[in-house]
Design goal:
By secondary structure, this protein is of the alpha/beta class. Helix content is 44%, strand content 18%. The model is unreliable at 1-19, 199-203 and 244-266 (pLDDT under 50).
Length: 388
């Protein structure tokens, strides 16, 4: 079993900071590092959208950029969701795993598209079936930051080598470049937040990478100058899932989408949905996606509603199969509506599915809650579950 090193026993002594202060400091560091990565990803996404719009203005199809925009969007969604889940704490689902080799290959492919002037070589002696327990974005974002740093300093070459690790049931990835390497005076501070090297930046990528790898039960190390290329060498080491555990997890994942029925868990055909949100852009996009999944959707813009009582009145005699309520509706919250439904429309209360962009409400309400950044498949499953 992989142990999670992010929750060590707190030190003892009167001079120690209170646990809540330590937690807030850690949260602040991770928040800054998350914003750093988000800025980079949003800049990339914005650039791709600009390219697509430029092509469309010239009468060209944006077929080349649209798949990349979709990939970047999904990566952004995964990263935010997984980091928020990790920061909140709590048990991690044993079903969250990823293919290590596929993650490296996908990240390198995306990197090569953005850095064609650097010759990037990837070699692997690790079996394709090797898997790691934990969020994939933790590993892929760490590797992306290393590649970005290497690209800034490399003269012309970057080399990645994936191989069995130094200990049983581990894997190691070496990332090397042919640049000048890290100055000896900086090597001890590489993983300290806001310490900048010659390449500029905020000094957050490596500190986030170490936190992310430790959250996966692994390590991120600077190994000095590369013997082969002469530049910097970083090593990422992660524990692998034992074959028996991996097969068990895969069977569990495969069976989760089937509940005694042959129908697809994504099909919303025939369902009547009522969607209430105060963000018009999200309201429109979500409604379109739900309609494409086969549902009939009625929308209510909560900005036009004065409060919970007015919304309860607006619901009137509507009887949707599922009522999707944004938790924060601007001037009021969906939690204020729930007691009114319990009193006046108990049958509708049983059809409520709350949507949240932040932490789930505490204490937890009786109705289910799903994060707005959840995968569409998860949202569809929750809708079908409420409807059933």
């Amino acid at each position: 079993m992989v142990t999670n090193p992010r929750t060590p026993d707190p030190p003892e002594g009167p001079a120690d900071a209170p646990p809540d202060a330590e937690a807030m400091a850690a949260f602040g560091r991770i928040s800054a590092e998350l914003l750093h990565d988000l800025a980079g990803m949003l800049a990339t996404l914005s650039g791709r959208v600009a390219l697509a719009n430029e092509g469309a203005a010239r009468g060209r199809l944006a077929s080349d950029e649209l798949p990349r925009i979709q990939e970047d969007t999904e990566e952004l969604r995964r990263m935010i969701t997984e980091i928020l889940d990790e920061v909140r704490g709590g048990p991690r689902s044993p079903e969250i795993t990823f293919s290590l080799r596929a993650s490296v290959e996908d990240t390198v492919d995306r990197w090569v598209q953005s850095a064609p002037s650097v010759n990037t070589v990837f070699r692997s002696s690790l079996e394709e079936s090797a898997e790691v327990a934990g969020p994939r974005s933790f590993f892929s974002r760490t590797l992306w930051n290393l590649l970005r740093n290497a690209g800034r300093h490399a003269q012309s070459r970057i080399r990645l080598t994936l191989e069995p690790g130094p200990r049983p049931e581990t894997a190691m990835l070496r990332v090397e470049d042919d640049g000048r390497g890290v100055d000896d005076s900086m090597s001890d501070q590489l993983f300290t937040p806001f310490i900048r090297g010659e390449g500029g930046g905020l000094g957050l990528g490596l500190s986030f990478g170490r936190w992310a790898l430790e959250s996966l039960g692994g390590t991120l190390e600077y190994r000095g100058h590369s013997e082969a290329l002469g530049g910097a060498e970083f090593r990422l080491t992660v524990p692998l899932i034992r074959p028996r555990s991996r097969r068990s997890l895969r069977r569990s994942w495969d069976s989760s989408g089937v509940s005694g029925s042959d129908r697809s868990p994504l099909a919303l055909e025939g369902l009547s949905l009522l969607l209430v949100d105060d963000e018009p852009a999200l309201l429109s996009v979500l409604a379109r996606i739900l309609r494409r999944a086969g549902a009939r959707v009625h929308e209510i813009d909560a900005r036009e509603i004065g409060g919970a009582r007015e919304l309860a009145s607006a619901l009137g005699g509507l009887t949707p199969d599922v009522l999707l309520l944004d938790l924060n509706l601007g001037g009021f919250t969906a939690l204020e509506l729930l007691p009114l439904l319990k009193r006046d429309r108990p049958e509708l209360l049983e059809r409520v599915l709350l949507l949240t962009g932040g932490s789930p409400p505490d204490p937890a309400p009786a109705c289910p809650v799903v994060h707005k950044l959840a995968e569409w498949e998860e949202l569809f499953r929750e809708i079908r579950h409420v409807a059933d």
